[in-house]
Write a structure and sequence with these properties.
Elements lengths: L11 E8 L6 H9 L7 H6 L6 E7 L2 E7 L7 H8 L4 E7 L6 H12 L5 E6 L6 H15 L9 E3 L8 H14 L10 E10 L3 E7 L4 E3 L3 E5 L3 E10 L2 E3 L1 E3 L3 E7 L11 E3 L7 E10 L6 E2 L3 E6 L2 E9 L5 E2 L4 E12 L6 E5 L6 E9 L7 H13 L2 H10 L5 E2 H8 L3 H4 L4 E4 L3 E4 L1 H21 L6 E2 H8 L7 H8 L3 E4 L2 E4 L8 H17 L6 H8 L3 H14 L2 E5 L2 E4 H12 L5 E2 L1 H8 L3 H13 L3 E4 L2 E4 L8
Parallel strand pairs: 1-3, 1-4, 4-5, 5-6
Antiparallel strand pairs: 2-3, 7-8, 7-15, 8-14, 9-13, 10-11, 10-15, 11-12, 11-14, 16-21, 16-23, 17-20, 18-19, 18-22, 19-21, 22-23, 24-26, 25-26, 27-29, 28-29, 30-31, 32-34, 33-34
Helix pairs in contact: 8-9, 14-15, 14-16, 15-16, 18-19
Amino acid sequence: MAESEKGFNAMTSMIAGTAGHVDHGKTALIRALTGIDTDRLEEEKRRGISIDIGFAHLDLGPVRVAFVDVPGHERFVKNMLAGVGGIDAVLLVVAANESVRPQTREHFDICRLLGVRRGIVALTKSDLVESGHLELVRMEVEQLVAGSFLEGAPVVAVSSVTGSGLEELKQALRDLCSELPGRDTTGSFRLPVDRSFSLRGFGTVVTGTLIEGAISTGAEIEAQPGGRRLRVRGIETHGRAVGQAGAGERVALNVTGAEAALLRRGQVLLEPDRFETTREIACELHLLASARELKQGAPVHFHAGTAQTEARVRLVAPPEAVPPGAAASVRMRLASPLLVLPGDRFIIRQFSPVVTIGGGMVLDTAPPRLGRVAMAKRLDALRAADPIGRASIFLAAAPYGMSLRQLAARSGLPLAQAAHAGELFSISEPWLIGRDRLRALLEALETAVAAFHETLPLSPGMGVEPLRIQLAPKAPRGLLRALVERTETLQIEQEFVRQTGHRMTLSRDQAQAVERMEAAAENAGLQALPFEALAAASGLAPAPARQLIEMALRDGRLVRIAPELILGRMTLARLEKLVQSHAGENFSIAKFKTWTGVSRKYAVPLLEYLDRRKLTRRQGDERQVIARQPPIG
């Protein structure tokens, strides 16, 4: 790998994938354009056909084209599929002496299903036919691409032997590259692996098309499936070492952390702890007109990016089969876990004969268990939504929302974009709630507090934790406080949630009952009264009496020294003054009984209370009275 350069390559670049029937001259054309032979395997050179994908690049003045050369033979279409993911444009190759053939159509269908939007048609081996025949082939090609993304695209007759048409093709590539929109490199780094090998002096090298984000030397990355952690030692694009590469570039990464044999085609390199693999997806499927009807439970070969696995189709909505040429919402159960995200394209191929029958777009990588009608409605909404709209739908299904990082992972969006899908809260971590869910939660919160006040009007409010358990038991603990802050009618005071205008007002009978309880507590002196005795003194029924006792305890008019023992406020003040008169002294329980005249039944809870108040300190079987510091000045 060459010496490193800093930053992105300033040259405009495009990744073009070849497509076409076997032996139509794809590899020869790339060699004629670039001088690079993409057939790197010994068997490819011996048989004269491409078996695996190959790579080359071409500088055209202000632009650079990276070619992904794919095999045309029907037996190697799965390798072709590993190469065309992430391309900007297709170079559809049709041999002038054979015209459109079966793999021409299949490769063209694959490009359409993968959402390729630009391309050029190259009529190779033009030196082998007369001009009249060449025009006939041109007409057949135009008929093939009519109504597609290639309608009106340049059709260039070339010869890899004589060089005829190569300059015209280079100009068409130059023009096409200049028309491409710039790639967004702000997303999360994602690189589907198409090759891994060991290079003497460097170690493990992996290659692929960087479909999203950017990568820099020194970065820590992760390979999924598997979760193996790697570190990037070096980056190479188009044969040159660089310090950084961005979306839309062919890259080779020199990595540490794994031998080449442990990394394989189909894995995806990405930011650590960013995304999770899945074995079930919900998606939009388009069946080719040339395919047989697709029945419920049909097994298929599933291809996404450079990965492939087997899958079983589950139709979401009736009928029980998808007719040729139709679109449908389906779920797919994957035989192996894959790293795919909403918006990713995929291809399915039939089991026997093994031909491409359709493809589509991933809508959800963690579809919920819903009935057919509800699932169909959900997928219709996901299909119609933009990426942020899809994230909003995922968020709406979460009763208490989800963390910003979780939503970004679920939707595939960068954190900054995912934040627009709902209402953002700053708690232990950034947290999002769907807007409709938020309104419902706020209404439920206000209703619960209002009902609590109606039931317990003498309470200062509902406890924060009991309210959280009632309304949002699985929500993070800080969320309830954040929700209360979003309301204009509620507030938190001393761990209680209350209505802003709530005031505890005692009736005349209630006020007299409290006075009777205070008097009873003071008359009892240090022989603290239990709840039942105070309730009896109030003259009220036990339930309302207990509410008044709790209120008096909160207001400090009564004091709890043990779970069921209560003192009068003035009695306690006299006890504290008595104890302070012995400041610095050590004393036993017996001496305390002499000071106060109480039995052990009351002495022990009184002393434990004084310990909690830090008026006394236990030292073995005795205690010491702690002298309080006099106020300054």
